[in-house]
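Hi W.,

Here's what went into the run:
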Amino acid sequence: QKEVEQNSGPLSVPEGAIASLNCTYSDRGSQSFFWYRQYSGKSPELIMFIYSNGDKEDGRFTAQLNKASQYVSLLIRDSQPSDSATYLCAPNTGRRALTFGSGTRLQVQP
Amino acid sequence: GAVVSQHPSWVICKSGTSVKIECRSLDFQATTMFWYRQFPKQSLMLMATSNEGSKATYEQGVEKDKFLINHASLTLSTLTVTSAHPEDSSFYICSAATGDSTDTQYFGPGTRLTVL
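Here's what came out:
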């Protein structure tokens, strides 16, 4: 079983809709998670860090963590074409390298 | 957030030459940096973990004599691709951990290497 699983997509949503991206993980010891966004041809950029069960909101982004069910999700409200990218989740590994899921490719249709 | 830079952003070289890529943490000290490689439409692949003042730890299948890593200071790690060949053409990305309570990792903008 992979450490982190994501649906590779593409996930296609219309502009203005809510995009829901999901990530499941296998290590029950994982305490916190990162969400990164990677545009084609660019490096990943951090968009959210979550360490507590429940929701964390930052602008149009809401991360949700459920440790009991071992999933973490990212909601993007009012999706824009500029949100079209690959979204990567990764458990916080301290100072060890991140283990990414395959990433979910999001396409926001204008 | 913290800033990580890479230089150069792109490089074209002839087969057989060596190329050095620099990764700098601009506003924090990073005892650990990471080097990744990404081929088109593929996931990031970890190449090595670079530790300040000690030898790098390479992932299985990565040739340490071909990809030389030097982490000479708390803000600089370098990756040298020696005797580059066309198959080494790729997107090389470094990241650095902030070392604070979150140990957030920030990525450099990447270096696109093309070997002719």
